[in-house]
Amino acid sequence: MNASTSEPVRCWWASGGDPLYAAYHDEEWGVPMHDERALFELLCLEGAQAGLAWITILRKREGYRNAFLHFDPQRVADMSDADLEQRLADPAIVRNRLKVNAVRTNARAFLEVQAEHGSFDSYLWNWVDGRPLRNAWREKGEIPAKTPLAESISRDLKRRGFTFVGPTIVYAYLQSTGVVNDHVVSCFRYDEVQAPG
């Protein structure tokens, strides 16, 4: 606990007092994820974040869920060009044509990965033999923006037709889905999220 505020000690990025950030950090970020729909949602949201602050995307998350059929990959893959054009007029999401089109593109690639590997979950977690990688960072300056693992997965996703999956986006995705535990060691969630994959 932080003695001056009686708040738990969090990673620096979630310590600014924004309740949405704190809830995301405390309840989701870094928790090993295996739900297909949720894995697809976060992949899309991480891509949408490119060039923006994550809080911007968190504030628009419900808008994204409504616009993209609650991230059902099959339904998103079936969206028409007219459907995507309609989304570009929706102020509840980031109205960037490349990012909006990427959601459908990635849904189609996601389905192909599911067909090949049985699930996207199997594909993703196979990169780490099914167990989260646990780092031991003490301060934000130690945490990399990308790693060799993220670069390898990024290359493979691009080869499979995914877009907005550069190594920095992929590393953020690995952190958010708990494939990598990048809570700093002083954070109250560091030990809590560590569970078998």
**Could you give the distance between the termini?**
28 Å
Structural class: mainly alpha
Largest sheet: 2 strands, parallel
Query: How many helices in DSSP terms?
Result: 11
* Uncertain ranges: none
CATH class: Mainly Alpha
Number of domains: 1
CATH second-level architecture: Orthogonal Bundle
Strand content: under 5%
**H/E topology pattern:** HHHHHHHHEHHEH
Give the overall form. globular
The CATH homology group name: Hypothetical protein, domain 2
Lateral arrangement of strands in the main beta sheet: 1-2
CATH fold assignment: Endonuclease III, domain 1
Q: Please, what is the average pLDDT?
A: 94
Strand segment tally: 2
C-alpha Rg (nearest Å)? 17 Å
Helix content: 40-55%
Question: Can you give a write-up of this model?
Answer:
This protein has a single domain (29-192), classed as Hypothetical protein, domain 2 (Endonuclease III, domain 1, Orthogonal Bundle), CATH 1.10.340. The chain is 52% helix and 2% strand. The radius of gyration is 17 Å and the shape is globular. It has 197 residues and is mostly helical. A two-stranded parallel ribbon has the order 1-2. Helix 2 (36-49) runs antiparallel to helix 7 and helix 2 (36-49) packs across helix 10 (167-176). The protein is built from eleven helices and two strands, in the order H-H-H-H-H-H-H-H-E-H-H-E-H.
